[in-house]
Amino acid sequence: MRRYEEALTVWRKVAALRPGHPQAQASIGLCCARLRRWAEAIEAYERAVRQRPDDVMNRLRLGLLYGQVGQWDRGIETLREALALDPDNELLQRALRDLEQGRRRSRP
What we know:
With 108 residues, the protein is an all-alpha fold. It is 81% helix and 0% strand. It folds into 2 domains: 1-52, Tetratricopeptide repeat domain (Serine Threonine Protein Phosphatase 5, Tetratricopeptide repeat, Alpha Horseshoe); 53-108.
């Protein structure tokens, strides 16, 4: 965990120097997710997606994070947006099925 804390500090410095750098935001998101700081991870990936809307992997990670915190509809919507960009991506298709299944299981 300490390594992720250290990496997070470095990536935050990079983001401060280059605010429009989508890789910095994605890396912040990854570090925060590994540290189970879900809200911070979501915010970072949301910024990364805004900065580079065509990056389906950032959309994938964001969608999965929404699912992690029980925001099933947002996660599903995010993954559908990613699939619109890359319809043949099997990883996205599988993630979407998983989130749809998670949503069904979470409802009484």
